Amino acid sequence: MKKFAKIAAIPIAVVAACPSALALQISDDESALRFRLKNELRRADKPSAGAGRNIYAWVQGGLIDFNSSYYSQRIGVEGSAYYVYKLGARDNMSTRWYLDGHESFGYVLGAIKIKPTENSRLKIGRFGTDYSYGSLPWRIPLIASSSQRTLPTASEGALGYLALTPNVEFWAMWRTRVFQWTDSTTGIRNEGVYNSKTGQYDHHRPRAFFAASCHRPRAFFAVKSPPAGTTRAAAIP
Fold first, then answer.
1. What is the number of structural domains in the chain?
2. CATH number for the domain including 126?
3. What are the boundaries of the signal sequence (predicted)?
4. pTM for this one?
C-alpha cells in the first residue's frame, strides 16, 4: 500500500494559551508534513538593553517541517522552512532579535537521516536542536536549546545517539554552524569564539558535545561533557 504523508496543521493564535503545541515532535519513523503559525507582539521598556531599551515588534512566524520514513529501514530525509514576517516595527525602537533589524527574515534546514541499528540514529546536515519546538525528544544537556523568539535554534553538522536501554541513551553532536535566538541579524552563522567586547564571533571553530541521559516519566538525569572538557551531572525534574 502506498504511504501518504501525514499533514498536520497547528495554528497558534496566542502562544501563551497553548505553549506545548509547538513542542510536539514528529515521529522519526513516519512520513509527515507539518504547518505551524506563531504570532508574537512585544512592547517593552527594558533598561538593561541600553540603547535598545524601547522595544516594539509584531511578527507572524510560519514554520513548515517535512519528515520521511526510513527507506529500506536505513535512510531518510528531513527538511524545514521557517520565516518571520514583519507586521509592525518602529524605526525609533529596537525589535530585540524578533526581526533582522527591522526586516523580515527566515532560513531553511535539510538533513539526511541514517538508522544503522534499531537503537541508534545519525543525522547529517542542517537540523533543529530546539526542545521547545519539537526538534528533540528530551532536554538533552548542551545539545538541546529553548529559543526565546519566534524561530527555533538550528545546528549544522552531525547529531547521533545510541540507546543502551529504553531509558538510557548516549548523545553526541559535532557542530560547525548554528542559529540561536540572538542571531536574527546574521542568520545561520559559523560556530566560534564569542568576543564580548565586539559582540562578534572571532574564530570559526567547530564544537563537539557529548551527553549521557537516563530518563523516566517524572525525572531526567544526565551527565554532560562540554567543549571546555569538564564533566557535570544534572537532574532535571
1. 1
2. 2.40.160.10
3. 1-23
4. 0.82
Spatial contact of 122 and 174, defined as CB atoms under 8 Å apart: no
Q: Is residue 210 part of a domain?
A: yes
Length of the chain: 237
The model's pLDDT over 194-220, given as tens digits with 9 standing for 90+, comes to 777 877 777 788 999 999 988 776 655
Residue 53 backbone zone (phi > 0: left; psi -120 to 50: alpha; other: beta): alpha
Interacting residues of 71 by C-beta distance below 8 A, sequence separation 6+: none
Residue span of the structural domain in which 211 resides: 6-236
User: Which grid coordinates are listed for 57?
Assistant: 515588534
For residue range 63-84, list pLDDT tens digits in order. 999 999 999 999 999 999 999 9
